[in-house]
Structures are given as C-alpha cells and as structure tokens.
C-alpha cells in the first residue's frame, strides 16, 4: 500500500462497504489477501515435498518459501490476538475454534490413513499429526498473550526462549513443543505490531527493493540445497537432533529469524491492500489449511507422486497449479458451510451462560436494529 494512512482504512466508499462483515465489524482486505496468499504457498509447499528431491531448482524455491510463509501467517495470527484476554466469550471461541478442531483433525488424519492404506496408525492427542501442530501452537500462544502484554521486552524474551529451545533436545515430541517454542517469536512480534508497522513495508520503495531481495534469496536457496539441511526450516528439532553442535541452534535461530523477517517484509510489500477476487477467501484459510492435507496425503498414499512425468518441470508446474487451485476451493463459502461443524462449532450446550456476555449480545442486537 503506497499512500494510505493505515491498512485498516479504505480509500473509497465501495471498499468500506466491502470490508464490513457480520456484526458490524470490518475486515481489512490486506490481511485477508495476505492470509490467502500465505495458505496457497503452504499448500504448494506441501505438494512439492514428494517432488523436490529430483530438482535442485524446485528444492531451492521450496527452501525460500518455507523461510517465510509460516512466519507471515503466524505474525498475522499474533497481530489479531492482541485483544485476547481471559474473558469467557474469548475463551469459548478459543476452545471451539482451536481445541475442538485439533481433537477432530488429530483423530481424522490417522483414521484417514488407516482407511486408505490399511495400516494401523494410532491416535494420540499428544503427538500432533502433520498439520495439526499449528492448532496446538496457536492455543498455547494465545493463552500466554496476557503474559506477553506484561513483559517489558516481549519479543526479546520470546527470541531467547526460541534460542534455548533449539539447543534443548530433551523437550521431546509431546504437543510438538519444539515448534511451539521456536515459532513463538513470530507470534509475539505480531502481538507487538501496530497497523502502521505494516504500512512501513507496503511503501513503493520496499516493493521495488523486494524484487532483488527475492531474486537473491532464490539464488542463495539454490546454492544451499546440497549444503544445508532443509529440516532447519521446520523448527521441529533441536540442533543436536539435526546432527549439529548445541551452539548451532541459537546461531541458526538468529540467522533464520533475520532471513525470515526480511522475506516476510518483502512478501507483505507485494500483498495488495485493495479488495480482489480472492479477498473473501482470507476468512476461510483455516479450512484450506486443515483440509488440503487430506488431498496431499491421499495422493501420497496412492502413489500418484511417483509418476516419473510429475518429476519433470511441466509435471511440477501442473502439481503446483492443481494444489493452488484445490486450496482455493477449500477456502470458499460452500466448503466453510459444509465443515463449519468441525471448524467453528457453536457448542452452546457445553458452556455456562455468562451474564456479561448475554448483556453484550442484547446491546449488539439493539444496535443492529437501530442501524437497520
């Protein structure tokens, strides 16, 4: 965005009308666009995993994308968690929007594998399966939000925790705590950010500078393919588990933090701030994130990625386009309506009625009637 005063404001009346959502709240087109583009990159990256071993170019691109796509998504998650507190209605939304989907999908993924392959994969709520680690992380991060609001230098503390975690192999695999802790600084950074910070990276000068930065990143990614373990980008292992001395963990955490933030800033600079054909899809990115994993795994279980022609440039492009289109469909309103029972269940029967929340609901309905 070049000359706007802030990403939350729209320049034209039609954009202001488009940015309204249910309940009189406004959605910012920039953030919805960023979430959609990030989730498309996530799906494409997952589709590249079975193919990248045969193409140094594809693995180089994969490395660059993995350097910033989840950090960008997590920063936005942190930014929109700034208002989280222990108010009952927000805790309910945390349970229904994060905990319940985690339990359902943590059960569904291994069950799906057993049905397709005839295997006997065990169901374990302590061992996040494939994509569900993000739900565990989001639950932990959001619960700790009030603490980060009290800390004097929250980002520095979170970064120190991530550095220590990267050198602590005995954290174990329960709840994927390595990822939770190593990705924590990005969430805390999002908590600390204000709309004007996003404005800074959306200036025309930054957008122009992002071109050579990404070009250089792709060149470095290609160079690093035979020299660097891609697992560093997953943030799920300590340095010792990756066969490196302990001190490499903190050093790599700092180095990758710098690279990730630079590329994330470049990514944000290219995200359009106006409404586009995919803006509305930004509200359904969690659907696309959790559901596209079934498509990737089904293709993998069926051996579709083993076809030799898919490991050639045209095949790699075809797979990229297909999974980009698939995750786009999974973010649409019809898909949201079908799977809302799993992603956003109301579950009023499970909670006590809070008097303050009931009063707010009455006030909200009164305002809506007055506005109508």
Question: Top keywords for this entry?
Answer:
about 375 residues, mainly alpha, globular, disordered N terminus
Describe the fold and architecture.
The protein is mostly helical and 372 residues long. Helix content is 64%, strand content 0%. The longest helix is centred in the first third of the chain and has 30 residues, at 88-117. Mean pLDDT is 89; it is low at 1-24.
Strand content: under 5%
Summarize the biggest pleated sheet: none
User: Uncertain spans, ≥5 residues at pLDDT below 50?
Assistant: 1-24
Instruction: Tell the overall outline.
Output: globular
Q: What gap, in angstroms, lies between the N and C termini?
A: 33 Å
**Helicity range:** 55-70%
Oligomeric state: single chain
- Average pLDDT over all residues: 89
Rg is 21 Å
In a few lines, what is going on in this structure?
The protein is an all-alpha fold.
Secondary structure layout:
Blueprint: H1 13-18, H2 29-48, H3 56-79, H4 88-117, H5 133-143, H6 145-150, H7 154-165, H8 177-182, H9 184-192, H10 195-200, H11 204-224, H12 248-270, H13 285-301, H14 313-330, H15 333-343, H16 355-371
């Amino acid at each position: 965005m070049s000359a706007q005063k802030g990403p939350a404001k729209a320049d034209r009346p039609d954009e202001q009308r488009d940015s309204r959502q249910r309940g009189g709240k406004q959605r910012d087109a920039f953030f919805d666009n960023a979430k959609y583009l990030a989730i498309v990159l996530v799906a494409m990256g997952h589709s590249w995993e079975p193919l990248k071993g045969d193409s140094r170019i594809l693995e180089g691109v994969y490395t660059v994308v993995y350097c910033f796509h989840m950090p960008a998504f997590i920063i936005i998650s942190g930014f929109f968690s700034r208002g989280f507190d222990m108010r009952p209605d927000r805790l309910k939304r945390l349970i229904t929007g994060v905990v319940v989907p985690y339990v359902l999908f943590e059960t569904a993924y291994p069950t799906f594998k057993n049905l397709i392959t005839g295997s006997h994969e065990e169901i374990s709520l302590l061992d996040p399966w494939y994509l569900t680690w993000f739900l565990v992380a989001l639950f932990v991060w959001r619960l700790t939000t009030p603490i980060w609001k009290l800390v004097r230098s929250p980002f520095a503390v979170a970064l120190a925790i991530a550095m220590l975690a990267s050198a602590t192999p005995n954290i174990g695999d329960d709840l994927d705590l390595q990822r939770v802790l190593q990705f924590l600084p990005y969430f805390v950074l999002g908590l600390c950010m204000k709309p004007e910070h996003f404005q800074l990276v959306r200036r025309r000068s930054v957008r122009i500078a992002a071109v050579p930065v990404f070009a250089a990143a792709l060149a470095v990614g290609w160079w690093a393919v035979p020299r660097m373990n891609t697992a560093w980008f997953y943030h799920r292992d300590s340095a010792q588990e990756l066969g490196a001395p302990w001190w490499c963990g903190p050093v790599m955490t700092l180095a990758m933090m710098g690279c990730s933030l630079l590329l994330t800033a470049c990514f944000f600079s290219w995200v359009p701030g106006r409404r586009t054909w995919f803006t509305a899809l930004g509200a359904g990115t969690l659907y696309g994130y959790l559901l596209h994993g079934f498509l990737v795994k089904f293709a993998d279980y069926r051996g579709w990625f083993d076809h030799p022609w898919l490991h050639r440039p045209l095949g790699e492009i075809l797979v990229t386009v297909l999974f980009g289109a698939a995750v786009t469909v999974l973010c649409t309103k019809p898909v949201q309506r079908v799977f809302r029972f799993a992603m956003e269940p109301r579950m009023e029967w499970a909670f006590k009625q809070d008097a303050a929340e009931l009063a707010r609901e009455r006030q909200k309905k009164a305002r809506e009637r007055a506005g109508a």
